[in-house]
Write a structure and sequence with these properties.
The chain is of the alpha/beta class. 45% of the residues lie in helices and 15% in strands. It comes from Pseudorhizobium endolithicum.
């Protein structure tokens, strides 16, 4: 068939309206999921769309409404299972609103992040959810103001002038320290990794403040490598700082998995010889043996809240900046035990 013939045979919204015996305006309301259309009429129009094979022309709608019905989501690492759960929560809210996500990876670097943000703007996204790369400055707020583009910070924040959805990292670390102290542990180490950003700083500050409150050594913070196999190889470093720790709190579950392997190689039994707590409580925590005690930061819920903030910001650009902090919860499993007297 010729290109002209294809164009002539293309099903239009007017064809759908005639087939369903409604006005074109009513058919348009159905396509745009307007609540103004009754259930029976909606079903009739949707049936006509299905029978005729009608496909909604989003590009044409965008030109008419100056909206792309897409949002950009920028995260620093797509391989971490934590971000998969975060994106799943966002997608549920975004999909319910009739929008589509464009997902990008900043590699946790400001130069790459700047490139990604520019490309999202070129694609005409209606707004952006950004987990700021380490090193992002407060200038982000003035950039967003110049762009006239709704933007929500997620997990990390660099400015109070933009919306933010994240977890109560300080409370999560404090609960972990309190639990270990209740088991009799006094020499507790905090194993951290990765670049420094707001979530990193809040975790470290929560650990130090909580340790001081119990009269314990607040400086037992040690950095481990980023890769799982390298973390395992560096487990010995935890025992090279004077008195060996009897318990370790980890920056995230990835660090906990790496140290668990290192402790196994060292001949230590987790939960008996040393206690171990993760952070984020992603699905892998249940898969580890013994099952990993971990602080849940509810990434799926953070994703939902970040999406809700962005949808509100798109609808009402003049809203005052809002912060949505999700409470954390310590999920106790089998990787911690009382301090051994031996």
């Amino acid at each position: 068939m010729s290109r002209q013939g294809q164009k002539q045979n293309k099903i239009t919204l007017l064809d759908v309206a005639k087939h369903a015996n409604v006005s074109r305006a009513t058919a348009s309301l159905v396509v745009r999921k307007s609540p103004l259309v009754g259930a029976e009429t909606r079903l009739r129009v949707e049936a006509a769309m299905h029978e005729l094979g009608y496909v909604y022309n989003m590009g044409a709608a965008r030109l008419r409404a100056d909206r792309s019905h897409t949002i950009g989501v920028v995260v620093p690492n797509l391989t971490n299972p934590f971000f998969a759960e975060l994106l799943g929560g966002m997608e549920a809210s975004v999909d319910a609103a009739g929008l589509v996500m464009i997902i990008a990876n900043s590699g946790d670097g400001p130069p790459r992040q700047a490139t990604v943000l520019q490309r999202l703007r070129e694609h005409g996204v209606d707004g952006i959810i950004l987990c700021p790369a380490a090193g992002t400055t407060e200038e982000l707020a003035s950039q967003v103001e110049r762009w006239k583009l709704p933007l929500v910070q997620a997990l990390r924040h660099v400015t109070d002038e933009l919306d933010y959805a994240g977890a109560d990292y300080v409370a999560g670390i404090e609960e972990a320290v309190e639990y270990l102290v209740s088991l009799g542990h006094r020499t507790i180490c905090f194993a951290v990794h990765g670049p420094i950003h707001s979530a990193y700083q809040e975790r470290v500050q929560g650990f130090r403040d909580s340790m001081r409150r119990f009269g314990l050594q607040p400086e037992l913070v040690i950095r481990v490598p980023d890769h799982l196999d390298q973390i395992a190889q560096q487990a010995d470093a935890l025992f090279a700082q004077g008195s060996a720790p009897t318990a370790v709190i980890c920056f995230n579950d990835l660090v906990a998995h790496g140290l668990a392997a290192g402790f196994y190689d060292r001949g230590l039994k987790i939960g008996r010889d040393i206690s171990l707590i993760g952070f984020d409580d992603v699905a892998d925590a249940e898969a580890m043996r013994p099952r990993l005690t971990s602080v849940s930061t509810a990434p799926s819920e953070i994703g939902q809240k970040a999406a809700a903030l962005l949808l509100d910001r798109i609808a009402q650009p003049t809203l005052a900046p809002r912060r949505w902090i999700i409470p954390t919860k310590l999920h106790i499993r089998n990787s911690c035990g009382p301090l051994s007297s031996s």
